[in-house]
C-alpha cells in the first residue's frame, strides 16, 4: 500500500514486529470494506505547553512520540472532515434530519482538525498536511456522493475505525496527562458519531462481533471485535450473557498499522 510521504515515518514505526497484528491484504480489505473544543487558542496553548514539557517523551515501546500520535490523529480528522464537507456539498445527497446530523458531525471534525493543528504547532511540531483523498476508493464506491446509503455506509466505516484508532494510541500517551485527556475527549465524541451514524442506517449503536452485517463491515474495520478476554480474564467464564452481548460490551483498539491500511484505501 502506498503511504503518503507525510505518514511514511509513522507507518514504518507502526509496522515494527512488536506492534504487528494479523491484517487483511490491501486487496481483501478493499473488497470487504463495502461545539466541541471551543476557543482553540485558549485550549491549544496549555496543551502545547504540556506537549513540550516532557521533552523527548516516547511511547512505552520507545518508538512513537506524542507529536507522531497527534499527527496520526490529525490525518484521520482530515479524512473525516473533508468527507463530510464533500457530502454536504453534493447536491441532493443529504436531506432533512440526516443532513442536520451530518452537518453537526462535520463541525465537530473541523474543530478537531483545528485543535490538533494548534496543539502540534504549540508544541513546536509541524502538523502534517492533508493528503489527497479519493472517497470512491478507486471506484469501489463510485456513487458515494450520489447515493445516501453508500455515503452513510462509508461514514460508518470511517467513524468505527476512528474510535478504535484513538483507543489504540492511548498507551502511547501515558505520561502526557493533558494530551491523553484531550485525546480521550475527542475519542468519546467520535464514539458518539459512530453510534449516531449506525442508528441512522438502522443498526444498533454498538458493534456485535467482528463482522457487522449492517455495514460495509469487513475484517479490516472490525478485526478483533469478537475478543472476549480482558486483563487475562475470559468474560465467558464470569457471566451468563450471550457471546453477542459480550462482544457488544467491549470495544477493541486498532493498531496504527491497521488504521493506515484502512485509511490508505482512500488516499491517493
Helix/strand layout:
Layout: H1 5-14, H2 26-32, H3 40-52, H4 66-89, H5 96-122, H6 148-168, H7 177-200, H8 219-222, E1 229-230, E2 233-234, H9 243-249, H10 256-263
Antiparallel strand pairs: 1-2
Helix pairs in contact: 3-5, 4-5, 4-6, 5-7, 6-7, 6-10
Strand content: under 5%
Large-scale geometry: globular
N-to-C SSE series?
Answer: HHHHHHHHEEHH
Largest sheet, strands/sense/barrel: 2 strands, antiparallel
The pLDDT mean sits at 79
- Spatial order of strands in the largest sheet: 1-2
In the CATH scheme, what's the topology name?
Ferritin
CATH hierarchy, class = Mainly Alpha
Structural class: mainly alpha
Pfam families: Ferritin_2
InterPro entries: Ferritin-like, Ferritin-like_SF
Protein name: Ferritin-like domain-containing protein
Task: Describe the protein in words.
- There is one protein chain.
- With 268 residues, the protein is mainly alpha-helical.
- It has a single domain (24-207, 253-266), classed as Up-down Bundle (Ferritin), CATH 1.20.1260.10.
- The chain contains 10 helices and 2 strands.
- The chain has helices at 5-14, 26-32, 40-52, 66-89, 96-122, 148-168, 177-200, 219-222, 243-249, 256-263; strands at residues 229-230, 233-234.
- Strands 1-2 form a two-stranded antiparallel ribbon.
Task: Looking at this protein, list some descriptive labels.
268 residues; mainly alpha; 10 helices; 2 strands; disordered N terminus
